[in-house]
Structures are given as structure tokens and as C-alpha cells.
Batch of 2 targets.
Target 1
Amino acid sequence: MMILKATLSVSCRQQLRVNDAPATPTPATVTGTPLELPSPVIGKPYFGTGVITIINRKEGGIEIKHEEIKGLMPAMTMEFLVKTRSLLNEVQVGNRVDFTVVETGKSEFITELKKTVQ
Ligand SMILES: [Cu+2]
């Protein structure tokens, strides 16, 4: 459990460094109850939803304030890399999005991204 915890936080910090954004990461913490960290399956797609906070078209990254991604991570704000930069073409900061994310073991990257129909 401790190893998983360390891996997850390192992974998220790496993601955030890619961005060079001054914003501080705000991983969600659950107060009162211990945070249950899942064991992600490498290469498996996970489905998430959240709101875009930063788009980094230059680096091909996107920061999303995402809700819990079941089986992958709790709710937090973090940057993901995108598989192809064209995924960023149709979205803007502030958009609520559904996305598919794949865990590589070192980081996570987004393979599908689309605005949530509201
Ligand atoms: Cu996250």
C-alpha cells in the first residue's frame, strides 16, 4: 500500500512538472477516512470526467480537475499528457469533459477527450 501511494504521487508530480505551471497541485484528500488507493492496470483504459483548468497545446498536455476515476485514482486536479495533440483542438478551459485515460505505469495519458453534453 505504501509503495502504491508513493508511485501515485510521483506520477502526478511528474505530470505537473511537464506543464511548468505555477499552480500548485491539489490532490484530493479524504478527511476522516483513509484514502483507498486502487491498483491501476497498465494499458487498460479508464473513464473519467472533470473540468479543464489548463490546456497546454505546446506540450500536448491538459490539466483537469477530475472526479474520482474508479480503479485508477481519487478526485484531484492534475495534468495529463494527451496521445495526440489534436485531442485539444475541440476543447477550451472551463469545459466539462469526459475522457479516457490509460495508465502506463509511470504516468497516465489521455486517449479520448470530448466535451460533456450539458
Ligand atoms: Cu489524478
Target 2
Amino acid sequence: MQTEVARERLLTKAKTLKVLPSLHDIIDKVFSVLNDQNSSFDQLEDVIQYDQAICSKIMSIANSAYFCRGLKILNLHRAMVVIGFEEIKNIITCLVFLDEILKKMKLRQDHFRSLWYHSLYVAYSAKILSARTFVEDPEKTFTAALLHDVGKIILYMSYEGYGDMLLQCQEPGRDLCVEERDLFGTDHQEIGYYMGVKWRFPDEFSSVIRNHHTAKGGGQQDMLLRLVRIADRFASHPDENLGMEGLILLKEKEKIESEIGRIMELLGMANEKG
Ligand SMILES: [Fe+2]
Ligand SMILES: [Fe+2]
């Protein structure tokens, strides 16, 4: 009975979580462009030129020591050319997740950091896996993976001991979702699914969020799910036997970590390790 009440309370929070009205528009437009494999540089520029926060961040990244070769970059188009199409897609995805979702939810600093670092780790691992296995578009995989644990936000906000629970559930033989369901009558997959629906994430992303800890197979849509699931397992248990994909990730571990360091530096978050 108690878990039923907890479940009801958590799912209601997921379905009614207040976000700025503009977030819907940004997510709608950005994801539809990012999700389209044929999207062009101009389409992406069209979407972001109206978002001041994203625009100014991109200008400052293009003018950072990393990209700037002495010439000051003064317009968005030039900034996007300097940074490059694929990199811009990753940066925008991270900015939407970081500024529009994580920061607005006002999580405690240590919780914010560990969710951010874990999400980035899974995103880069899944992206590398998808680029190496050719089964899914790497940028789409990156976005879906970055968002896979979005449901944890509600649990962090609602349950003081959730950070400790996450750490304890990394021990062998423990299953986070089972323990969440025992305690709350629901898990971060189901909660995240309702957030994804409310925030109008593409259906494929909501499906990944809902099923990334469950065993499923086959089908094109499930390839995305499979990549995120393996990347997520690898992030928590790099020594576990994860077959060929696990071996690829083990070999690329240093690259994954250096990519995370690089994006953190670009976003001005170099000290925000998990
Ligand atoms: Fe998860
Ligand atoms: Fe995860």
C-alpha cells in the first residue's frame, strides 16, 4: 500500500514537472533536427539562431582557445563552421540536457555531478559503439544515451537517500530497478518514460528510457536500445563480460574519458567530475 502511494506520487511528479514553456519548443525543434539523419547545417542554424543561450554559448566555444586560431569569430554561421557539424550536434544536445533540464531541476551539486558524468559516459560509449558497429546513427545514439537516466532526477529530488542507494546498487548481485520498485513501487525507467512523454521526446528515446535495464532483442528500434544498454552496463561495470561490444569499449576507454574531458572543457565544466 505504501509503495502504491509512493508510486502514484512519483509518477504524478514526472507527469506534471514544471518546465519553462520555451523548453518544449527548444526540445521539439532541436531533437527533430538532431534526430533527422539528413538534417543540414542550415536547418540546424535556423533552429538555434533564435535561442539566445545556445547561440551565445556556441559563439564563446568557437572563440575559446580550443578552436580560435587568433581570429575573432563574430557570427553564428562562422562559429558553426569552425566547430564542425558533428561537434555542434553534440554540444547542443549537451547544452539542452545540462542547461534546460539538469540545471533547472536544481539538484544537489554532488547528485547533479554524478548524473551528468554518468550520462556523458554512457553517451560517448554508446556513440563509439554505434560508429564502430554501423547499426545506428552515432549522433542519435548519443542523444538517446545522454537522456537514458532522466528519471533519476525525480528520485534524487524526492528521496534524500537516493544517491547512496545508487552507489550501493553498484555492488555485485544487486539490481537497482528491483530495489527501486520494492521501495517506491516504480523505477527510474518508468518515471523517465513519463517525463519523456511530457517533454515530447521522440518515441524512440522514450522507449530507450523505459527499457534500458530490461532484456529485449531484434528489430531496428531495439538496436538503439541495445547500444545504450551495453554502454550503460559498461559505465557501471567495465570488467563485466559484455561480449564483443564490451571488448570494443574496453579498448576505447581512454578515448571515451578524453572525449568527456574535452566536452566538459568546452562547456566550461572542467571541474565537474562525477
Ligand atoms: Fe538506468
Ligand atoms: Fe545509467
